[in-house]
Amino acid sequence: PLCSPGPAFRGLGRCSCAFWLAVAFDLLGLVILLLGVFLDIFFYDFLIYAGAIIIFLSLIWWVFWYTGNIEVPPADLEDDVGLLKKKNRGVAGVVRRLSSRLSSKMTHNVFPSDVYDSFLYFFVIECGLNI
Fold first, then answer.
1. How far is 105 from 109, CA to CA, in rounded Å?
2. For burial by CB atoms within 10 Å, which of 4, 49, 58, 110 has the most?
3. Are 50 and 32 spatial neighbours (Cβ–Cβ below 8 Å)?
């Protein structure tokens, strides 16, 4: 795939596509910004603003590249993804069970059938929508 380390780009980390997109956005933004600064044209202000915005948008790709290269040992990930069994003992177990019961009751009572039917009636009959 595009975001896998290749033999030539091993030093760039795991997601080299985000790195190259960030560099491309930086270069494109810099060229457009400098064109707006040094060319004597009537829309120079547009070029200056557009270049600055493109450089700012390159930060998205830099963040993707950086976060894609964070190394976390598998031992630290086990608890975060739920691979370890949680013990339902003590106060934490009681709070966990109470929280799961309350959340399951709340999700079932968010849209009672009569409220849902009235919304459905309004959209189908009054608005003329075909669902």
1. 6
2. 58
3. yes
- The residues, any chain, with a CB within 8 Å of residue 51's CB and separated by 6 or more, are 29, 30, 31, 32, 33, 34, 35, 36
Amino acid letter for position 14 = R
- Tell me how far apart the alpha carbons of residues 129 and 131 are, in angstroms, rounded to a whole number: 6
* Mean pLDDT of all residues in 40-64: 95
pTM of full prediction above 0.85: no
Does the pLDDT of residue 31 top 70, yes or no? yes
Q: Kindly write down the DSSP assignment for every residue of the chain, as one continuous string.
A: -TTS--STTGGG-S-HHHHHHHHHHHHHHHHHHHHHHHS--TTHHHHHHHHHHHHHHHHHHHHHHHHHT----HHHHTTTTT-SPPP--HHHHHHHHHHHHHHHHHHHTSS-HHHHHHHHHIIIIIS----
Cα–Cα distance for residue pair 130/35, rounded to 1 Å: 53
Mean pLDDT value of segment 46-73: 92
